[in-house]
Structures are given as C-alpha cells and as structure tokens.
Amino acid sequence: MAETFLAPVIEKLLDFLGQEVNLTRRVHKEVESLKDELEIIQPFLKDAEAELERDLITSGAMKAWVKQIREEANHIEDVIDEHLSFAGQNVHSRGLISFVKSLKSRYDMVSEIQEIKESLKEIKDRGHSYVLRGFEQEGSRSIDPRLGSYFIEEDELVGIESTSKELKRRLIEGECARLVISLVGEGGLGKTTLVRNVYNGKEVEAHFDFRGWITVSRGNKMERLLKALARKIHPTTERVDVEEIDTIHELVGAIRQSLMTKRYVVVFDDVWRQDFWEVLKHAFPDNKNGSRIIITTRNTKVASFCKETPFDLVQELQAWSSDLAWELFCKKAFRDEFKGHCPEMLQHLSKEIVSKCQGLPLVISTIAGLLSTKEKLVSEWENVLLEFETSPQLTSISKILALSYIDLPHHLKPCFLYFGIFPEDYTVYDRRLYRLWIAEGFIQERRGKTLEQVAEEYLTELIDRNLVSFEVTVYGLSRKYRVHDLMREIILSRAEDLDFYEILDDNKSRFGGKRRRVSIHGCIENAMEDGQDSSVRCVSVFGSYQLTKSFLCSLFEKFKLLKVLDLEKACFDDLPLEVGNLFHLKYLGLRSTPLKKLPKSIGKLQNLQVLDVRDTLVQELPIEINMLQNLRHLLAFFVTFDLKQKTILSGVRIHKGIGNLKEL
Asked: Are 109 and 81 within 8 A, CB to CB?
C-alpha cells in the first residue's frame, strides 16, 4: 500500500472491523465503504504530498486540498476512538438504559461516517476538477539547492586543506585495484565542496584518462544515471547510439566496455539509496590500473554498503571545530575590510552568530557572505542575529537540510518530527523515546520482534542518516539523543504545516485547539482554556510548573481521547481520580513529581502500557494496578535521604497478583 497519513487510518478501520464483533450490519457496511473510499484517495494523495515536499507545486489550492483530507482523516480517528471509548467504559452495563445508549452510539456513528464520506467525496471531486491538474502545469524541474557547492571561491576552502590532500593522495597513489571512497556526513558539512576541489585539481585531471561527475540526488532513476555516465564517456558523435540503448543490462555492458582500458575516476554525488551500488558496480571494471570511484552521501548505511573490499574507504566528516569555523567566518565576513580579522566591537556578536552555525561550513559561509555586504555596525550584526533562522539567504540551506527529512520513509517521519516536542537543546533517553513512539502508534509490528526492538531500529536508522546525534551518559549505561538546532527549525516548520503539534511557550501561551499534540514549555496558567472538545492525543509538560487539581481535572475532561500524558518534573501531589476516564491513555509519565499516591481509578485505564512513577513520593501502588492487562512497563522507585543527606533509592510496595500481568 502506498504510504501517506491515510495509511494508519485505513489500518485503524481494518482493526475496528476485525475486533468489534458486536457491530450492526449497517455500521459494518458504512465503515467498510469508508475504508474503500480512503484507499481510492490514497494514491492521489501520495503524489500530491511528494510534489509539495519537493516544492515543485506551490499552489495554495493543492495545500488546502491535502489539509482538508488530513482533517477528515483526523475526524475518522475521533469517531472510531469515541465509539471505542463508549463501548469500553460501558462493557459491563446492563438494562434498558444501557441498551438505548448503545443504539444511540451506533446511530451517531453511522451518521458521522456518512457525513465524512460525503465530505470526502466533495474534496475528491474538487481535487479532480482543478487541484490535481496543477501537477502538469506547475511541475517544472526545480533548481538544485546545492548549486553553490559546485562553484567555490578560494577563501571558502578554509579548513579542508588536510582532508583535500589526503583524498588526493588516495586518488593518485596507493593500491592498483579499483577503490571506492565514500564520504559520509550530514547536509551542509561540505562533502561536495571538498570532492569538487580535489576533482578539479590539475594533478587529478592529468592522472586519469577519464573523469566523470554524476549528481545522483533523490528520485533519479538508474537508467537515467547510466545514460548520463555513458554520454560523458562517449564523444558527441556517438551519443545517438547511447540514446538507442533500451535496457540497463546493455547500458552497464557498454559503459564497462568503454572503461576497460582506461584509468578512470567517477564521482557519484549525493547518493541516497543502498541499491544504487548493487547495479552500478558492475559498470566499473577492476582493471588494476588505479581507477577510483568517489561517493558522497548523508547515510552511513549507503557508505558501508559500498565498501566491499578491505581497500575501500568510508570517511565520516565531522562538524568543524570552533577555531576553524571562526577562521572561515572572519575570512569571508571581513574579506574586504579589516584584512580578514574581526574588529573588537563585533567580536561578541560574531562569536554568537558562529555558534549558531554549529560547525556547518555551508551555513558559516552563507551567513558570513551576507554579513560581508553589511556595514560593520553593532546594530547590523544584531539584526542578523535576531533574524538568523528566517534570513532569506538561509532559505537554500534549509532546503538542503530538508532533503534529509523528505527522503525519510513514511514510517520514520513522525518519529523524527517528534523530536520537536522537546525544548531546544533538550536531550532524551532512548528508552523514553521508544515508549512514547509506541504509545503514539508510530511503531509497526514485525514478526519475531518486540515493539521496543523495532523502535530501536527506527532510531538507529535516523542516526545512520545523520539526522539525530547522541551522547553517552556518565556511567556509559545509556544514551541521550537530540537533533541539530538548524534541523529542529525544519522540524518545527514541517510540524506546523502538518498540524502535528503545537508548542506553548513565551511566544504563544494559548492552545489553538486544532493540533493532535500539545507541548508546554512556558507558563501553564490559562494555557488550555481554548481547548474545549479538542481531539488532542498527547499533552507534554516540560519544566517545574505548578499544576493545580482544577487544571488537571479540566485537562482530563477536555481531552478524553488522550494517548500520552507526560508530566515529568511538574509540581503536583494529587492526581485526580478523573484520570481513570482516559480510556485510550497508553503512556502516563509522572516521574520526578511530588506525587504521594495513585488514585484507585488508575485500574480503569485498560489500554495503559507505560506507568512511570520513578523518583516520586509514591511508596505503595494500589491493588487496582493488577487490572491493567496491557501494561508493558511499570517503572517505580522513591528517593529518601539518610542522616548524611546521601540519596537512598527504595522500591515501592506492590500487591499480590501483579504477576498475572502478562505484558509486563
């Protein structure tokens, strides 16, 4: 199935049809019909999303069309979850009143599904009428945002001299066998700049019989790449023959035959797929004359896949040191004045600007180039610092970094966007991430593996793609993860476009009521007043804010479909019994709060998977915990201090019968 944001909704409908045995024939028919309608829309939606992500379609109508489908998808989830919540909370109810309520619930559900289907039909018709026609009208070939990497001034080559010399040495000297050299690192590190500098050198040009540069990029098909390479190998007069070759097998054979007697160096810039090398390697004969292939990629797995012999090299490029970053910045920002040195009055602001670039030479070079055109005044520097993320000059850099997000498979995108929920510079433990992702429904089941193992694979892939970094904790027992600040800005921008979550902080203190997730980073007072009847699925609070009982009761009343409630480090000592009404709640994070006890109503949370009461004042778990048949993780201890104020960790008291929780 082509994956879009409709895929989990379709899966939800299938699960609903399979599990709800008490559905009337009419309800079953309507749900089945709705599922079929979504499956018809999904291929068109997939094309629209792809074009919008690549910025090939700028039509406001297209964006509105996709947003309308997303809103209907959310509405479908709400209808299903509300029905499941009603059924789950009334499973033991009997009598005439219960029967009437059940009939009304089913009637309401049928009515809402019919309204959704009618709305979807109208949206689909509008799409066919004028929105989807924009594909052909607007879908022109976009300009490569990495174009500037191919044309470099001498003053931008600061800091790569030693790496350039080493790369040139490996090209010209060493083994006679054909070697593959892979350069891997995140976008903006200067991989293309480095290779282009060496590739264009006179020594390299003189050493090889044939040089070829192929920009791979996303979406380039194998046949197109092979034909591009064949055109470079063959003289102009022979290109007609190249165009007439129809099969990949014949193209590979023609290229291989042409290179058989040549010492060649071929660069494949910006490779995204592992399977790329599986085919292309057969086009390059190992003629034992020192031929070389260079690959640049953001994906560690791609680089490792291309290493097939002990002589092949994988070189990981790192962000620049503060000294190198400063040298490049000064050389470019003050190249026409002050002899490439920063004047004292601008030192502090300049260093603050450089620190925001976080060692990415592409960002440093761009912002320094912008500043070189400004008057050397404190006010000018302050304006650039204030508008750093929104500067038009950084638009192309954002597009370069965003390519890494666009290339993610659909199942990894929500996991990556989830990092934006956490505050800037926040690091999060891996196991907490796994549990949150699972509770949100981001992790797909795989035969023979636990959900936690699959979540670990997801995180590993994000690391391999150089999108997420980590630090090892003091004792080396676990890791804490974060994203690059510049990438975080892209995450927040994408999340806003997708209504993925809303951040409440000093800049925005009130919830708008349209997003599925709310993350509170600032003052919590009155933050949720406008969220009545919202279909919010996740509320996270970051910071030691006082949560009153009335606030929590209001939260539980408004957001009855919550899946995740993460209140770690918030200040409250009483969890209202109304928490038991959150039928869909899967994750309840109460770590490092002054909570003294859990209400007995906790036993009503039949879908709860994670209960975290570590480092609280809870010393005994209620016996009702034994009713939570879906509980996977029960995390509990409390802290006391001895006479010397040394920390003592103590376990909590549990009741007999907890061993019957088979998912623990």
From this structure: no
